[in-house]
Amino acid sequence: MDLNQSMLLLSSWIGQIGGFGLDLLWRFIHLVVSLWYIVSGIIEAVESYAISLGLNKKYSSINIAKLRCLAVVVDIEEARDVTKVIELLQWLRTIGVKQVGLFDSQGLLKKSKDLILGTIPGSMLSEEIAEKDFSPDQNRLALEFISSSDNKEAVMKAANILLQRYLTSSHPENDKGENFFTETHLNEALRVVGENVHAPDLLLVYGPIRSHLGFPAWRLRYTEIVHMGSLKYMRYGSLLKAIHKFTGVHQNYGT
Amino acid sequence: MAELPGQIRRMGGGISQLLEQICGFSRRCLFQVISMGPIPNHLAFIMDGNRRYAKKCGLEDGSGHKAGFSALMLMLQYCYELGIKYVTIYAFSIDNFRRQPEEVQSLMDLMLEKINSLLEKESIVHQYGIRVYFIGNLALLNDQVRVAAEKVMKATAKNSRVVLLICIAYNSTDEIVQAVKKSCINKSDNIKASGNYKHEDADSDVERKDMENQEERIQLVDIEENMQMSVAPNPDILIRSSGEARLSNFLLWQTGNSQLCSPAALWPEIGLRHLVWAILNFQRSHSYLEKRKKQL
């Protein structure tokens, strides 16, 4: 074996050892991160338990009037457990939330709509409440079921409404569409295709990561997005804490 | 004796250069380790907290934004060193035009100065071969800023190593409306050119109506193609500084599968540790995010 081959072999070995060393360091960093999450999870669980027991006076009263509309985003794997969703809605009802939008990307909760409405006393679909013009009822919980079809597909349908209006109107050849394509027009077209365009004040995400998971983009402008962790291990105290924190938020809407 | 202060200054300068080199070397070693896991392709930033920073440090109005710009340059350097190809920043929202006119003017002046500086030879654009896009309703900007932005886009059009998307006079709902408008006008022009449009009732329910010709309808892909942000893939991570938990009308359409991070630090205080933390969290969630992409 000549010198060049030996050098190549040696540098290959050094490269492999170096790569192995870097990989080990990377795994060690992630081990430390995981330990950090375990410790902070334990602290959070203890705090949540204390809040549930009423030991923390700060959470004993919440200005729930500030939370007009709450949305709950559930990861599709978690959405299969409808009993946990029902439990969550019962907690929200206890806290005094009046309007909840439930979202999962594949519409699993939409399919369980009847079961959910049948199990939670006083719950009704938001659109039914709006149609029948019910007076505000302390015990009524307005529910809305949302999925990905209410996001980009809905905008596409609304766009086709606007296209029809544009085609059927008389406008000059060089018209740039200023009188047909504004946020107000798109908002109205979304209503025509049956979409709720009201923005939730607070979005609670139950899933592995903090992400809105495709909640209708048109409604998310200034919505506070809070990650609650797994629905399977949800805690009443954490829910109270998230809603309480929201009521203390001040927004300047870009000004 | 007269040379002593000069010597001390030179020694101080030498020590700080050495420290800088040690920090740079340590950072590159850290990046080598982190790169053993998946690195995001596209990172987006909401640079929030400049005004609060100026107030906190007792600086005059406008200085917070200058400090924010320095923080931005550092973050861009770290991102490009790590091999992140696309970086998007929320520089100025359409809603920000509602601020006090003096503040808006001072921001426009700062942006004009910084946009022009991108064209200088020693700028970060040339150092990293950055292609720059200005995303937003540029017609709302004053002529000077708009012309400068167009000049930078033209000058960097041939760069392809990394991409910087600067969202200026932007908000997501405006982006969606502009995409819908472009799609509709293009479709209308195509229909008129082919001459086979049948007059339909404008408010008919398009879901039930039997449209004979699919080419008369806008498809989702038409809207997606006309979104200004279609020049980049969707962001993997969106970082908003100052601990606020909302998106403030930024990339709402594109972030359905993005990890959202909200470090408490104000934007001028943002540093390497926040970026590293966001990437480590991305690496922990990577398999879940990939599974979701396949399901969509």
From TrEMBL, chain A:
PANTHER family: DEHYDRODOLICHYL DIPHOSPHATE SYNTHASE COMPLEX SUBUNIT NUS1. It is found in: Endoplasmic reticulum membrane. The keyword Signal does not apply. This is ditrans,polycis-polyprenyl diphosphate synthase [(2E,6E)-farnesyldiphosphate specific]. It comes from Capsella rubella. It catalyses: n isopentenyl diphosphate + (2E,6E)-farnesyl diphosphate = a di-trans,poly-cis-polyprenyl diphosphate + n diphosphate. Its EC number is 2.5.1.87. One of its GO terms (cellular component) is dehydrodolichyl diphosphate synthase complex. InterPro entries: Nus1/NgBR, UPP_synth-like_sf. Keywords: Endoplasmic reticulum, Magnesium, Membrane, Transferase, Transmembrane, Transmembrane helix. GO terms for molecular function: ditrans,polycis-polyprenyl diphosphate synthase [(2E,6E)-farnesyl diphosphate specific] activity. It is an enzyme of class 2 (transferase). SUPFAM superfamilies: Undecaprenyl diphosphate synthase. Pathway: Protein modification; protein glycosylation. Belongs to the UPP synthase family. Its cofactor is Mg(2+). Gene3D superfamilies: Decaprenyl diphosphate synthase-like.
From TrEMBL, chain B:
Gene3D superfamilies: Decaprenyl diphosphate synthase-like. Its EC number is 2.5.1.-. It comes from the Eukaryota. CDD domains: Cis_IPPS (cd00475). Its cofactor is Mg(2+). GO terms for biological process: polyprenol biosynthetic process. Pathway: Protein modification; protein glycosylation. Coiled coil: none annotated. One of its GO terms (molecular function) is ditrans,polycis-polyprenyl diphosphate synthase [(2E,6E)-farnesyl diphosphate specific] activity. Pfam families: Prenyltransf. Keywords: Transferase. The keyword Transferase applies. GO terms for cellular component: endoplasmic reticulum. Belongs to the UPP synthase family. Catalyzes cis-prenyl chain elongation to produce the polyprenyl backbone of dolichol, a glycosyl carrier-lipid required for the biosynthesis of several classes of glycoprotein. This is Alkyl transferase. It comes from Capsella rubella.
